Amino acid sequence: MIRWFNQLTIAFGASFLWLVCLIYFTQGFRSFVWTAVSYQLKDNLKLSPSASQFVSSIAFFPWSIKPLYGILSDCIPIRGRKRIPYLFLATLLSLGPWLVVGLSASLRASRVQLTILLTLQNLGSAMADVVIDAMIAEAARRERASFAGDLQSISWMTMALGGICGSLLGGYALVNLQIDKIFLLFSVLPTIQLFSCGLVKENSLLPELSTSNGSQMLNKNVFDEDKLTTKSKSSTSRRKKGQKSTRQRPAVENKFEIPEKDGTLASRWFQSLKMACYALFRAFRQPMIVRPMAWFFLANVTVPNLSTIMFYFQSEALNLEASFLGTARVVGWLSLMFGTFFYNRYLKKMKLRRILLWAHVGLAFSSLLDVVLVSRSHTALGISDKVMVLGGSALADGINQFKLMPFLILSGQLCPPGIEGTLFALFMSINNLGSTLGSFVGAGLASVLDISSGSFDNLTLGIAIQVLCTFIPVVFLFLIPKEATGIAT
Q: Which parts of the chain span the membrane according to its record (predicted)?
């Protein structure tokens, strides 16, 4: 383990690896402060389960428009640099709202104002996530993808470590500290991140934007349609497509070529944006990218998310204390780490269709455990509520990681030069948008079934509907390329 970490340090630099680990640790440690947010919405603002889930869904919407931040950082450099300045800005946006919420009791007590501040905070966190993902993609490509899986693995394991620490300390803090102190304590990590941004040096990229070489390199390295066609197509059709692409490419490059000397800085930025959008469009057309993205979106939006409703049930109906619920999240994070290791060790060469099929069977089973928990059938077997909650959390988080890892690694390896942040963010934003819409669907289902604080009579029916919906994405597995695996070939 130490030798592996030393190899990564030599390959990418200590300051870069430190920044990657810090940002992902902070992302995971957000469980420390978002546990307090959940109790703020439930106990202090007295929101119903569906209203609380609705507020959380709005607050997390910035994670659904990540390509916007990717396009900005890829195409509009600030003082000649396109990563570190945006990371500074993102960190400030991530830090400010927690300071305001921690210092102002009136803002914490207002649903609208609290939602706005939480949304701004997520805007900063999402932007930082996009920028660091782009930097990882660039670094992995420079190393010819030899460490692509290692970088993704260390990122997720660091985030899991942050989640474990945040979940453990979050439950303890809720019992021993006031909520405003929790918000202020969390702001320490973004502050450290702000100063750490200055440790990583980034070369000026303005000369690249003022020459035609950048344009030609971008278009030359955008996904080659011949490389991603399936093996089942005949060699004749591939040859014809290659000839057609060859004839058209010079015209495309001339069309999007940036003037070497003429034009203002704004016009060069506009041309760069236009090139990035065109390159993104070409990349998005590739079946190896668009079909898994479409499936993953459907897999999230067709399954109602009842996590907030289950949180209300566990804390009110089962009377589970905050410290224990934090421990349950720790088990979930440990399961996520195990899922990352298990995938990289045994599953990354397996066909995606098979991985995703069994993942959804496992998710259906974990939802059935929730049915047993809500119906209290487990008590007849002498199984405690806490054991059921711990087991369900571990199983669900581990299985969800099996769904996510193949796409993360594949997207990171296939990012073409110039649009790393945009393409990687596009995949994740589709995932996040699907999750957000799934949360809205879950809130709507809870409202229709009249599930509210203190009234969980129909929760068993709601979870049963969730179990049935879990099998809907299985019907759409044909969207996943038949020969696709979790690693690029």
A: 52-72, 84-106, 153-175, 294-313, 325-343, 355-375, 387-410, 422-449, 461-480
Contact 25, 162 (CB under 8 A): yes
What is the distance between the alpha carbons of residues 179 and 354, in angstroms, rounded to a whole number?
45
**C-beta separation of 186 from 98 below 8 A:** yes
211 with 258: CB under 8 angstroms? yes
Q: Please name every residue paired with 405 in a beta bridge, in sequence order, or none if there are none.
A: none
Region at 342 (left for phi over 0; alpha for psi -120 to 50; beta for the rest): alpha
Give CA–CA dist 256/151, Å, rounded: 33
Element housing 367 (H / E):
helix 352-375
Nearest to 355 by CA among 399, 416, 311: 399
Alpha carbon distance 218, 419 (integer Å): 8
Q: What DSSP state is assigned to residue 480?
A: S
Neighbour count for residue 177 (Cβ, 10 Å): 14
Q: Write out pLDDT tens, residues 237-271.
A: 433 444 444 444 343 333 334 444 445 767 777 77
> pLDDT for 383-427, tens place per residue?
888 889 888 888 887 787 777 776 666 565 555 565 655 666 677
Mean pLDDT confidence for 87-91: 92
Separation between Cα atoms, residue 402 and residue 439, nearest integer Å: 21
Please say whether the beta carbons of 221 and 37 come within 8 A: no
Residues 6+ away with beta carbon under 8 Å from 160: 28, 333, 334, 336, 337, 340
* Number of C-beta neighbours around residue 84 at 10 A: 20
CA–CA separation, 182 vs 193, rounded Å? Answer: 18
Q: State the helix-helix crossing angle for 420-448 and 287-301, rounded to 10 degrees.
A: 20
pLDDT above 70 covers what percent of the chain? 74
Give residue-wise pLDDT tens across range 31-55. Answer: 899 988 988 998 889 888 888 988 9
The Cα-based distances of 329 to 22, 39, 266 in angstroms read 20, 15, 47
pTM: 0.73
Which amino acid belongs to residue 406?
P
Residues in the chain: 489
